[in-house]
Amino acid sequence: MHLTKKGEYALRTLIRLGLALRSGRDVVSVSELADGEHLPFKFIENILQELRQAGYVESKRGKDGGLRLAKPMKEITIGELVRLIDGRLAPIGCASETDYEKCTCPDELHCGLRMLMIDVRNAIAQILDRYTLDDVVSVTLGKFQRDGVAPPFALVPKKKSTRKAASKITRPQRVRHADPLDGFFAVLGQARAARVS
Which residues form the domain of 155? Predict the structure, then answer.
């Protein structure tokens, strides 16, 4: 499986809509979504059109209009979103359950590569179909809180007119590499451990 830019942008946009909803914002403008994720406006607009047609987002017209999620976050799995935008999860067509493509192998039934890629597809599907948009938004908010970073759409207290410093809000930083301890499962495990103790 390879997540395309379109798939990545769609997921990031839906997560941002989920973060807005959790912060009490019902609708968000396309420009806010594009600016907040540093994504091209036209590209996001096209992706949102596709998500709207598939029933994942809806628009609200008017002065305070914008976009919002059309389904509860608990009903949207990450796997269904990836399949919608990018197609099959399998790395090769002959290993796909939903978008099978015959390969050039003379004995597909006994092909070791196909067997391995079926297991890769199954592992990817187990993870992506297990977690919902709600899970990803919850873990994301938990990591913001753990790191003392204000999440998008959070209400930031206005500074007082006195010289005393208001509570400091840390801005997100760009990372230069993927730390395994920053993965979804690691952060989810930390959140669960914190709830138990």
Answer: 133-196
